[in-house]
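Morning run. Coffee first, then this:
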Amino acid sequence: MKLFVYSYRDFDEGEFFNKYSSEYNIELGTCREAPTLENAYLVSGYAYISVITTKIDADLVTRFHELGVKMISTRTVGYDHIDLHKAEELGVQVSNVTYSPNCVADYTIMLMLMSVRKMKRIMERANINDFSLPGIQGREMQNFTIGIIGTGKIGRTVIKYLSGFGCKVYAYDLFENSEVKQYAEYVDLDTIYTKCDMISLHMPLEDSNYHLINKDSIAKMKDKVIIINTARGALIDSVALIEGLESGKVGAAGLDVVEKEFGLYYYDLKSRVLDNRELLILRGYPNVIVTPHMAFYTDQAIDDMVHHAIKSCWLVENGKENPWQVV
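And here it is:
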């Protein structure tokens, strides 16, 4: 079978694509650019394509379908960048991947600790030889009540990690998990908002949770609440977050994802004026850490992502059940 790979990165993915394409006897075609209507013609003759977190809108799904693509495999856990409605309408299958939850869970804990200990301010001051103490006194995790929204694999791992800090942990999910109950108490969203000193997001983006963190939910939160997001940017209304930071309602934020990040990550744009005003504002605050969607980025995760992307296509081609199928 043949698989065409967009956004191909030989410096980190190459060895794994070579390894698993050989293992599954797959002929690869590659393009270092993201998929567009202009380069869609490259998939002619390929029934399967692999993408990352780049926008695959209805027009592009339609074009791929016209060129004979029967499956789009995204090398990501999230799939909100793909127009699933158009794919389903045209009969184009869509699959995602899974990877070790430890990568994002580790990163989440790092952002929590950096936010609690005001590490951005400490590092910026140290860079200019300002070793003074006012304004950088931190807090201790054991004194926090932390709310985890979303208890899938990553959320569960974060909760397990947090159990070692001795803090109180509340959890929210539509589907409760018995493993979580060893370390956390399931509560409703209002309890998360009103009782937690820190709130961390761990769910896919769907219509039902778009702007889950908004002006109204922030108003319910404790003063100086810390908000962590390593899931999807649009779970948070950036304008409402900025207002919360400026009013002092939100004490700090650790963000690995932001709204409207498509087309920004992972390119060298240092000579460009970015069309994302909220990102630029958020980056300027001393109590906000913004990283460019890096929480997943470990050697193990890249191995898993490439492996599962290739294997899901192979399973479909061979008429076997595909555990990563979305549509």
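The mean pLDDT is 97. Good start to the day.
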